[in-house]
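Follow-up to my post from last week.
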Amino acid sequence: MKNKTRLPHLYLALLMIIMYLPIVVVIIYSFNVSKQSTIWGGWTINWYKEVFRDSSLIEALKNSLVLGLLSCSIAGLIGTIGAVGMVKATYKSKGLVEYISTLPIMIPEIILGMVFMVFFSLLRLPFGMITLVIGHASFCIPYVFMMVKARLVGIDKSYIEAAKDLGATEVRAFLDITLPLISPAIVSGMLLAFAMSLDDVVISIFVTGAKTNTLPIKIYTQLKTGITPKINALSTLMLLGTLILVILSNVIGKRKRV
Amino acid sequence: MRSYICAAVGGGMEEIMSEVILEINHIMKNFGNTEVLKDIDIKIEEGEFITLLGSSGCGKTTILRIIAGLEVPDSGTIFLNGKDVTNVEPNKRDVNTVFQNYALFPHMNVEENIGYSMKLRKVQKKAINEKVKETLELVQLSGYEKRMPSELSGGQKQRVAIARAIVNNPKVLLLDEPLGALDLQLRRQMQMELKRMQKKLGITFIYITHDQEEAINMSDRIVVMRDGKFEQIGTPTEIYDKPKTSYVAEFVGNANIIHGTTTSIQDGLAVVTAPGGNVEAEINEEQLVVGEDVTLAIRSENIILHLDKSMGGLKSLLKEKSFASGMQKIILEIEDGTEVISSSLGMNTDLAVNSTLYINFNPSHGIIVDLQSV
Amino acid sequence: MEKKEKKKKSKSKLWMTVAPLYIFTILFVVGPLIYMLNLSFMTRAEVWGVVKKFTFDNYLKIFEPVYLDTFIESLKLSLATTLITLVVGYPFGYFMAKLSAKWKKIMMLLVVVPFWTNALIRMYGWIIIFRSNGLLDKALIGIGMTEKPLKLLYSYPAVLVGMVYSLLPFMILAIYSVAEKMDWSYIEAARDLGASRLQAFLTITVKLTLPGILSGVVLVFIPSMGLFFISDILGGGKIMLVGNLIRDQLFTTRDWPFAAALSVVLMILTSLIIMLYRKITHVRDLEGIL
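User reply:
Got it. Predicted complex:
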């Protein structure tokens, strides 16, 4: 039964245009000579140069990258071995623990931010990179956990049994068989976590210290105070970076699909 | 003359040489509330090809897994070569398994799959390569070292799985319905290859299947299993010619089961009254009591049909007849509603549906089954 | 007995693998949440900090008209957002599922990419478009639809657009993942039996894609309650939602117990929705949506 009208395609195209509109606008205006977005002054790449000259911006970028790397690494470790253990576990409270550990991505970010902020105050932890990492790790872990668990569940148990049958110990079977087979999921999960960390503004606002700025926070404050096309340039660059990450994640995730 | 003596002596020597390699003692296993294995007991001899035959769910895979060490029995013991291995980890048993779905490691090529167990034992790379090459030759897959499992056909994967399991020269090889996923032609071919391989290597094969044809063609001994118990253990001939229960008779060789009462016993022949008439069955060692119920099993190829009751037999109605691959199959119904199937060569067009025929058989083909004393 | 020993050994190895997850979860998820609950019952001290005096005041305060209004406004906005997202996103996911395999992959990528760009950047794009004398105004004036620039930015509609825009991909993906697995022969059977296109759609398609609709609704509604920065940026601070309220109470007013109480209520609301969702769909986890 074929739909003869072009309606579906039109609808999809229209919506796609609307979806990309703001992004395209930001990119185009990053080349605007004029500071104000209401006036078009001509083409220039000055703003891009300004980005690299702004030390506080670069500092914020560095912080975001370090934060992202740390968070996704911790998530990778804890999430992976947690998933491995959970899949084998059979006791009753297992469901509850899973639910609680994936809570951070299910509740509104603001609550998480708020909760962390008061909790860290209670513990008298210095607000800064440490609190940022903990906060980000908490919502990164569920992503890795869920992706690894999903992949793990799909792997035939008989591979591990065959390995043991051939002489492998539990540990060896995990290293030789399970790990290689779940590595695409681990990598995808970590890339996803990295992208989420880089993107986060809500939680970061609540758990960062006065001296530590992440890129999203910097952009947010600038959005509220005064914007220059420098932000457009920066945003375009970030867009490029995230694009590369997403493509990487997809490519790796699709390879080795057994 | 001399050859006869040699053969006799050789035969005798072989019997003494055959020792028990695997002892399965009173194994019981429950999964939750279900009794999957109920007192499994058997001694398996070195170098024999023994098949566990049964329908799905009877517990044959569970026994295999217990022998491999992938499951632990609730009670009972397993002795391998005289040592108690009941609680030994699978990686420490000298037993290897060919899994039903092959379980070839998808991220390793053929060479790495086969060589995996050797790598674990830290064998030198050169030695591994040589042994892998040797084993590939044995399964007729020379040159396939670098292929990935995803590039292999079903039959090829199967052979790699076997190669991987025999490369260690295990004492016992467990095969879990290895030919199930192959088409008929390939299956028949592999049956012969497996048998040939087993004889050549001398490894004890414990084989699982639900296909009676496979069991009869390949095994030295067959164990017919049903609902977690061993129904009968014997050579293919024994299982086929002398089934002890109606289940075995029906499972292996599609027998007809007739229930009747013994009316007299004379000169090794029992006269049995069944719905629609009398038949005679040969008694060998069975203890029959006159007046008691008895169950007979007769293979469909042994059924003889008469048009009148002058030769005795059971009155029956012809319900259906069909013809396929040179065999005529006739379905009849005797007076208590039991279906009897007769199969014979050639086509007989005289017999019409709904005509009355008398079913009989040579007394030696009437097998007495389900005796209580058994 | 040897067997019991073996069981114990493998159990302890299992514990080692889940331990880090447990410890992290208890320390940094359960702990903070319990503390927040605790905090919501405390009293705010005069200048700074809290006094450990148990009180229900914070919860009672929520019922004051001004705060209750905020909750209601937030709920209304979330509901509106969810509804619009559903209406706009459902056809999208549905049409997407009917594309050829090649186009499906392309579309998937196209839908996901904006999703991964920084939310703030996308909001900024809307600012450029919506602001007075911005792109939209220029376009409308240009084609003669209006004389003066519209004051679209810093208004409720702008916030709504921002919210729908941010959360649309969730709805699309949820609908798509269900529609994609649908067996179109059901529709053909219905048509064969005499149903019109509309009837077939209403009775068959909608029912079959219901799981997707439900998960999409949950995936949009819950985050929408917390996206305060959208109303902050696109609403110019004129629109106060629960998220903004909590943020203000924490940073400006510094009434932490009250903020905690607000958060607890918010959490209860979202938990209720999740529980409702689970009950309806008998779904154990949301992993499939990833």
